[in-house]
Amino acid sequence: MLGTSPIPGLKVPGGEWQVPVQCGGVTVHPGDLMVADSAGILCLRADQAAAQLEQAEAAQRRETAQSLTDWQQDHRRKLTQALQSTPFALPEV
Fold first, then answer.
1. How far is the C-alpha of 40 from the C-alpha of 31, rounded, in Å?
2. Is 33 helix (H, G, I), strand (E, B) or coil?
3. What is the C-alpha to C-alpha distance for residues 53 and 47, in angstroms, rounded to an integer?
4. Would you give the DSSP letter of residue 48?
5. Which residue, of 28, 70, 75, 80, is most buried by count of CB atoms within 10 Å of its CB?
6. Strand blocks (E) in 2-85
7. Can you tell me whether residue 92 is helix, strand or coil?
8. Using one digit for the tens of pLDDT, what is the confidence trace for 27-59?
9. CB of 58 closer than 8 Å to CB of 45
10. pLDDT digits over 62-83, tens only?
11. CA 33, CA 8: separation in Å to the nearest integer?
12. HEC profile for 50-65?
């Protein structure tokens, strides 16, 4: 069964092309890279992509070289620091 639309679309595109737009309070420029998953959306400026890729690859190399025990200790330290200014605290292990 085919659906119907009470207001048919236009055959002629409207608006401007290749101009910055606002999306959720973020300005997206022509050529920017957009990556999305269930955790959120990343808008990466095209002129910053190479530097950001280099930083991401360096972070991945550090994380890959880190043992699970070291990661857990580091993660717990970061959480403890973050929670120090709140009424919450992590239990001792």
1. 20
2. strand
3. 12
4. G
5. 28
6. 21-23, 26-28, 33-37, 40-44
7. coil
8. 999 999 988 888 888 889 999 988 988 998 999
9. no
10. 989 999 999 899 999 988 888 8
11. 32
12. HHHHHHHHHHHHHHHH
